[in-house]
Design a protein that fits this description.
By secondary structure, the chain is mostly helical. It contains 7 helices and no strands. The mean pLDDT is 87.
């Protein structure tokens, strides 16, 4: 009998120490999560027009990437590839801002840069290839700065980007 009383006493003490947390948790209210209102966005057609400032921006980017590639050519292959891709991208953006006649004059320079890109990406930069790429970059740099500076092409900018689309249809 003393054993059963001692056993019961130990049992109740253990039960009191552990508590009834799962039972208490079961019957308490959970806080309500606030319902968020969905955001509604009105979609507007963003109309971007060719402006001298936009041309100047792409020209400045081109100058920066061109000088960067000339400076670090051959030191890091990934950097060379990134630079030449940015150069070509900015030249194409400049071409899209120009009227068709002036844009066609820029096309051979873009083609030269595409050839340089092929050499950089697909061939290792041996001394011969490095000299070829370097000379081509410097030559194109001089020509484009001379013929396509923002001051020179100010009067050759498109009025809108749809200008060529309307002529082609």
């Amino acid at each position: 009998m003393k054993r059963s009383i001692a056993f019961m006493l130990v049992f109740f003490m253990l039960a009191a120490m552990t508590g009834c947390e799962p039972l208490k948790k079961k019957f308490t209210r959970k806080p309500k999560t606030p319902v968020k209102m969905p955001r509604i966005y009105q979609v507007k057609k963003y109309e971007k027009k060719p402006t001298p400032q936009l041309y100047q921006k792409h020209y400045s980017y081109w100058v920066t990437w061109q000088s960067e590639l000339i400076k670090v050519l051959g030191q890091n292959h990934k950097k060379d590839v990134m630079c030449i891709e940015q150069i070509i991208s900015n030249l194409k953006d400049m071409q899209n801002i120009l009227v068709k006649e002036k844009g066609d004059v820029l096309a051979p320079h873009i083609a030269n840069m595409d050839r340089v890109k092929d050499v950089i990406i697909h061939e290792d930069l041996s001394q011969f290839n490095k000299d070829y790429v370097s000379r081509t970059l410097e030559k194109e740099d001089r020509i484009i700065k001379r013929e396509f500076s923002p001051a020179k092409v100010r009067n050759n900018l498109k009025k809108s980007f749809e200008e060529d689309d309307a002529k082609n249809q």
